[in-house]
Amino acid sequence: MEKIGLLKSMKQSLHAESEEVRKLMNQLIDANSFVELQSYSYSHNDFYGESAYGEGVITGFATINDNPVYVAAINSKVLSGGLGLSNCKKIVNLMDKALMANMPVVYLISSQGILAGEGVDALEGVAMLLSKCQQLSQSVPQFAVCYGKVLGSATLLAAQCDYTYYLKGACVAFNSPLVIAAKSEVNFNETAIGGDSNGNGLCTFSVETMSDVKESMTALFDILPEFGGVYEETDDDPNRASANLNEKVCAKCLISAVFDNGKFIELGKTYTKEVLTGVGRVGGYSVAAIIFNGENGVELTKNNVEKVKDFLYFATDNNLPVLTFVNTLGLKQDVETNSSTVLKSLSNLLCALDYSRSVPRINVIYGKAIGLGYTLFGSKAYGADYSFAFCNAEVGAVNSEVGAQMEYASAGGDKEALKEKFASVELDPFKGAKGGFIDDVIEPQYVRQYIIAALQMLI
Q1: Which domain covers residue 38, as residue numbers?
Q2: What is the pLDDT along the chain (459 residues), one digit of tens a residue?
Q3: Are residues 146 and 236 in the same domain?
Q4: One domain, residues 87 and 207
Q5: Are residues 206 and 242 part of one domain?
Q6: Which CATH number characterizes residue 360's domain?
Q7: Quick one: angle between helices 251-258 and 447-458, nearest 10?
């Protein structure tokens, strides 16, 4: 009886210290599905003078809508969720098990960074953790759910994950927002520095509640080939036409016209909004899509090039066919872009395009494919299997304004009329089709039919 009493006392202490994070975790996983690992692993931190119950981390396996996952929840109530050698080892142990079982890992993160009082021990622990995270990145999906302040080295764990969720009120920043504000002598708030729209490109999904996280993860599992299968029967007519596309085309219109029942999961919605990236099903087939969303064509910058590059690696690693909806110009002509590391980013994008040769790729030129925009996203030279253009698209080396000045200005006449003439003659997609560079020129309303036919051939 003495042992039983001791067990109950230990369990009560552990659960009292982790009540809040367990409640959060239970909102994500299926009821009664959690099996905890290393429950009674805890030590006394001599520097801080506190017992780190469970090492400040809860680890185990569970299911999310019947999908098996491993879970590591960092408890911000224990040493501020600080990362030290012991709790990093505990997370790494879980990651090893996930790798062996080929199961996804979900990290719930709220941490002030490393336990500085541990010195080099803490630094070694974080290095072990980040190194293992990188090993997992090529093998199993990793999800980070940032539910509070995520600072210092903890941000690098979130950054290495395939999907990073920002729960309402989350702040993710390597340096403390208070320190940044003080050094900048500006009254920044935490959201401006570490919120979902601060421009660091880390946030995959911005959500209100853990229920939203569960719904999102379930939808992703349904689409990713490894979990939901490459193909799933759909009740959406594969021959469905969208007459509205003959009048006007936009990203929203394309999503509605192309994807099964208009369902599209956008990734990284809060940044670089002129380029949409996401996943869905078309004719029952799982696909990844890049949609350049700009009325007059998207100019290339360091940020949107990096977003496309990262997404190509993601799609290839998940064995997803890539649809690229092209409405793209060349490099943005301003000082900021040309003074940035955009050329290095473009070089990295070329590597990603080459890497993605292993998955089917379909280019759809629906707007403009001008200059470098065509070279990167319209041409088949970098491994695209099929390329077609809308009949009212514009394809060429220069835009209509520059082209009109080069070709027709000497003849005189109305500037707008010359631009229109150049667009209709020199930017006609049929010129590319005559050279064999574009496989087909189509009526916009039938785009879904053409894509499904290509997927049926390529998959």
Answers
A1: 2-215
A2: 476 655 455 555 555 567 888 899 999 999 999 998 876 555 545 544 555 554 578 999 999 999 999 999 998 877 767 888 888 999 999 999 999 999 999 999 998 888 878 889 889 999 999 999 999 987 899 999 999 888 888 899 999 999 999 999 888 888 765 555 555 555 556 666 666 666 678 899 999 999 999 999 999 999 999 999 999 999 999 999 999 999 999 999 999 999 999 999 999 998 899 999 999 999 999 999 999 998 889 999 999 999 999 999 999 999 999 999 999 988 998 999 989 999 999 999 999 999 999 999 999 999 999 889 999 999 999 999 999 999 999 898 766 555 445 555 555 555 555 555 555 556 788 887 888 889 999 999 999 999 999 999 999
A3: no
A4: yes
A5: no
A6: 3.90.226.10
A7: 60
Instruction: Indicate the pTM of the whole model.
Output: 0.88
